[in-house]
User: Which sequence fits this backbone?
């Protein structure tokens, strides 16, 4: 229980750092300098202004210095990161896999929020992810290597094909993102992730168009769907694959 609380708090602190990345990377600002400040009045934020989730609640969502509204996105990212971290830990325990998935989830959360707002997937984040992925593959060499290299190539290859066939419906960022995921999950779960992402994207796309939030011509970022599909895949992918195998072999 203590481990869960620790990991949740750790997740919200990482989430608070991800907020900095989400704000600064698309603006091409340095991620270490200057220290956190209010985006409206520029006042430097003190440690007690930066306690994840809690500061937002005690400040009632406003800047202590100028009263400007703080986006609900900030505590949301912190809460989400904390929840994702403990979910991964719950399923995979105290293992190297858990650490590798926690690392990837942090990258995916950052990418998703940047993709939603700016419709880009920054190369810096993909590269950081791939470097991390290579380190994890070397540390976890007992899990083998071929499976993950195939996952990497398959992720990039299939999305590249879809983008050629659909005439550019899939961005270059999505292709790189799928390759990155392949490096962490191997080829089977790469396929599952892609499959779920396409279904999620189609369902949500239709809903967004029906609710008139988006029109058919709007670009709908695909990164967040890939991220959610990845989480579903690592948690339930094996069940989905087994069900599918039974289905096609006619034993379901
Ligand atoms: Zn302010």
Assistant:
């Amino acid at each position: 229980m203590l481990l869960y609380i620790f990991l949740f708090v750790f997740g919200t602190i990482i989430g608070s750092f991800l907020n900095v990345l989400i704000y600064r990377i698309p603006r091409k600002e340095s991620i270490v300098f200057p220290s956190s400040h209010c985006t409206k009045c520029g006042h430097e934020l003190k440690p007690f202004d930066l306690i994840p989730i809690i500061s937002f609640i005690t400040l009632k969502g406003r800047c202590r210095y100028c009263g400007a509204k703080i986006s609900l996105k900030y505590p949301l990212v912190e809460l989400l990161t904390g929840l994702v971290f403990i979910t991964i830990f719950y399923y995979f325990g105290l293992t190297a896999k858990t650490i590798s998935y926690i690392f990837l989830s942090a990258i995916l959360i950052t990418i998703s929020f940047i993709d939603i707002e700016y419709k880009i997937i920054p190369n810096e984040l993909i590269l950081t992810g791939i470097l991390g992925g290579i380190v994890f593959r070397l540390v976890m060499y007992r899990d083998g290597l071929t499976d993950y290299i195939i996952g990497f190539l398959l992720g990039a290859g299939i999305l590249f094909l879809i983008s050629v066939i659909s005439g550019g419906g899939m961005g270059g960022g999505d292709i790189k993102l799928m390759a990155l995921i392949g490096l962490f999950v191997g080829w089977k779960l790469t396929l599952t992730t892609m499959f779920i992402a396409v279904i999620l994207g189609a369902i949500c796309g239709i809903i967004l168009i029906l609710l008139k939030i988006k029109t058919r011509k709007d670009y709908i970022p695909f990164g967040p769907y890939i991220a959610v599909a990845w989480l579903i895949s690592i948690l339930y992918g094996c069940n989905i694959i087994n069900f599918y195998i039974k289905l096609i072999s006619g034993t379901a």
About this structure: The CA atoms of residues 18 and 34 lie 16 Å apart. The chain has two domains: 1-94, 126-252. Residues 126-252 form one domain. The chain has a mean pLDDT of 92.
